[in-house]
Design goal:
The protein is mainly alpha-helical. 67% of the residues lie in helices and 5% in strands. The protein has one domain.
């Protein structure tokens, strides 16, 4: 259960706040009836709240990464390692056709890295101190290539758009189904003052359940993007280097010593199978290595 933690936690909080604000100001009723039909207006309100939650989450991603993970952005390299790191990212960014990202290091003994940010030309690429300590430069270069590919592919924006669509339908369907269920439970008796507490409880429960189903879609896309990022890392640094980097991560056993909110952003993933696979943000490392070896 890694991939959606960052988006879902921030996103649900934003959606909740927006929902409360709309309710207090009466804007929800305005949006509901703006299109002339209840369902059309509800869908409009759902889209406003759903996409706002996703894009605010994206806009805050760099700030959250720096504050929650203690990422130290390299403004001026202090040693040869930091200088090499900045130079490598700059060269790969130019090769990938994107702007120079911010480069940072976070304090973790385990090898990991991630990329985030709202724009391809102003992203953040960060690596753990453990990665710099435990990987060779060729392996580190491959990991950086993987993260640069995420940025070049626009994965953050694509995930945000997908999250926005899913948010919209979770918000919309939870309220439609909530109204149907509440009507059935109340015997369709006329209400004197709108929806009762049963409706709101039903909606909250449905929103959680539908949100869990939506997360499966996000995780499926997340797994697909990891294969693409591995292929991009292989193009930027060499296929053997990318395979060696993944083998090194596999040997580390527990490479994702990151806060849950950011585990989905890291390069490494677990190796669960069965139903657990549906909740994985990353494919098993063995599958990623096999995919690279098959791509001769």
């Amino acid at each position: 259960m890694k991939r959606i933690f960052l988006l879902i936690l921030t996103n649900l909080a934003v959606m909740l706040v927006l929902g409360v604000v709309l309710r207090i100001t009466g804007l929800d009723q305005y949006l509901y009836y703006r299109s002339g039909t209840n369902l059309g207006g509800l869908l409009l309100a759902s889209a406003v709240i759903g996409f706002a939650g996703a894009f605010i989450s994206l806009a805050l991603s760099k700030f959250m990464a720096r504050s929650m993970m203690g990422v130290q952005v390299i403004d001026q390299p202090r040693n040869a390692t930091e200088q090499w790191l900045v130079n490598t990212v700059r060269a790969q960014a130019e090769q990938a056709g994107i702007g120079m990202p911010d480069v940072g290091i976070f304090d973790s003994p385990e090898p990991n890295a991630f990329a985030t940010g709202a724009r391809r030309d102003h992203a953040l690429v960060a690596v753990s101190q453990g990665l710099l300590d435990r990987m060779s430069r060729s392996e580190t270069e491959a990991v950086l290539g993987h993260e640069i590919t995420h940025v070049a592919n626009g994965d953050m924006v694509t995930m945000t758009l997908l999250q926005g669509v899913l948010n919209t339908f979770v918000y919309f369907l939870s309220r439609v189904l909530g109204s149907i269920i509440d009507n059935a439970l109340s015997g369709n008796r006329e209400r004197r003052s709108g929806n009762g507490i049963g409706y709101f409880i039903t909606v909250m429960v449905l929103q959680v359940l539908l949100g869990m189903l939506a997360s499966l879609v996000l995780m499926w896309f997340s797994r697909r993007r990891e294969f693409r990022a591995d292929a991009g890392g292989a193009r930027l640094s060499g296929r053997n280097n990318m395979i060696a980097a993944l083998e090194r991560l596999k040997a580390a056993h527990e490479p994702a010593a990151m806060p849950k909110q950011f585990a989905a952003l890291g390069i490494a993933g677990g190796g669960a199978g069965g139903l657990a696979r549906l909740f994985m943000s990353h494919p098993p490392l063995d599958e990623r290595i096999a995919a690279l070896r098959a791509n001769v």
